[in-house]
Amino acid sequence: MSRIAASRDWLRRNLFSDVFSGLTSLVLVAGALYWLPGVIEWMLLQAVFAADASACQAVNHGGACWGVVAEKYRFILFGRYPHAEQWRPLLATGILLLTIVASGLRLLGRGGLLVAWTLALPLCFILMRGGCCGLSPVASDQWGGLPLTLLLATMGMLLAFPLALLVALGRLSDLPLLRGLCVLYVELVRGVPLISVLFLASFLFPIILPQGFSIDVLLRVQAGIVLFAAAYLSETIRGGLQAVPRGQHDAAAALGLGRWQSLRWIILPQALRAVIPSIMNSAVSVFKDTSLVTVVSLFDLTGALSLALAGDAEWRPYYLEGYLFIGLIYWIGCYAMSRFSQSLERGTGLGQPSA
Amino acid sequence: MQGRRRRELGIQALLAAALLAALWWLLDVTAGNMAERGIRSGFDFLRDPAGFAIGESLLPFDSADSTWWALAAGLANTLRVALPAILASTLLGTLIGLGRLSPNLLLRGLCAGYVETLRNIPLLLQLLAWYFVVTDLLPPASAALQLGPHVFLSKSGLALPWPGGDGGLLDLPLRGEFGIVGGAALTPEFLALLLGLSLYTAAYVAETVRGGIQSVPRGQSDAALALGMTRLQMFRLVLLPQALRSIIPPLTNQHLSLTKNASLAVAIGYPDLVSVANTTLNQTGRAAECIALIMAVYLMLSLLTAWLSAWLERRTGRWVERS
Q1: What region, left, alpha or beta, does residue B144 occupy, with left being phi > 0 and alpha being psi -120 to 50 degrees?
Q2: What ipTM describes this predicted complex?
Q3: Which domains occur in chain B, in start order?
Q4: pLDDT, tens digit (0-9, with 9 covering 90-100), for A184-196
């Protein structure tokens, strides 16, 4: 078949398979021709890229004012962190991202993974907090922007996982009281919005903790995120545990393995393997959900943007460009995670319970 | 067997004791803290006048009305935005989900692009962006965009014809000297929330619909076509009834999370239940009570939805068997 015939065949199959499909193609192409030039004009051709407020004013929203990003990017990315010390959150963000990516690409062995994480997390905290190693101390209420978002999401996932595992096992336990408690926790948390859990963490934790035991708002909100994420994650893990065929339990018992041995070596590896894609979906949710800490006055990526623009009359009109910028950051993170989960599903047959 | 039974009972008794002790300790600490800070407790504040105004309300509300009525107005506002958003997201999401299964490459790509974009950006960010677009980028009311006969869109919201008004079937909004007069006005807060919730949830609904239809084995549609059914008949009589069974449970979950997500209204100042409770909390300092109220209401909504979903599943189950 000649190339022309082949491409005609391709066109017919994909764009003009029947009348309806052909009409759809025409409408969509016409729409694209109508809208795209305006979009390109706004985003690129008429856009102002320099941090020049008067130039932005001159185009009067006829083109995007990307200058707002050029002017405010340090504020958006690092919040109120002291300007001269911003290399620290930058480095911490780099270390965290590198560790996450290296774990995802399996560049580290099992031992390497453990070493990397036990080194990376304390290092990030030391960098952010300071107060030792010649770094000036920076209180956690000055943390903000991307590193805060990443820390909240990463720690949220890492701490929620063991809790979720325990709750999932508790829900499948033989003890009715334990089972009831776990069901209560999961259904209670899943029935209410995250905001109410964050309010709980922010307003109520100080009242229910003993005097002199006050923990700062960042930790309280982190605890709220962990409690919330764990409830959803535990349902995912429970699904995995229940997908392991009954025969596996029996076979483990027949081999003389005890309950914990059978759980550790036979059941859990299969159960967790089966739900890795869903666990990744939970990670995406947690990453997105961290934006809600803005509501309880923490300045994560979303909060830092408002902080950067709200008080500045010169740049205030260009919120939309700012939203698009941080939207892109969130999007890259979420899309990378969901593609990663899909590639796991395809490449290794994960997502199906192993026979 | 007897030994194991006794051991299980023992463990549970220990667990119960530990739990009661922890609870007692928590309450003790809390009571101590509250006494020290002079925080009063109880739900008596619900009967006091609210003392704050609500931006917009479906129920008639005035700041002299009681606090519980303010919260009721908040819940009504939650439902007022959630129900239309559920309808809109389900319709749009179904169309996009079907579009992702279309033989047309462009349509498939467009729908996939929609889902991947909307799903991967936090809802809060989308709401803030919509709110900014409505309140800052739209023209002022004096130069409102006319979207149709007597439909005006501006910084002050959307003005629509509405039944009633003096001396006519419809109260029509008209251009006045300083803006739009007459008709029903939807506030920018309501518009941004409705738009944001509907578009975001539609992406999830689309995935649910696509997953449900793809879960029907291919042989079913082949068999239907082989029997001489048209594509429409095949879809209506064979695919849809089977797909609905796997679509409805996750779909009601989406509706429930939409209702929970409506609580993000607090970020853009739409007076939903959570916003009103938050204002009450700040005014009265009754944090525990206000948070408990929010949670109780949402738990009730969840239970109600679960019950509705189960009922719907039974209904569709019967419908599937009939057809």
Answers
A1: beta
A2: 0.90
A3: 67-322 (1.10.3720.10)
A4: 999 999 999 999 9
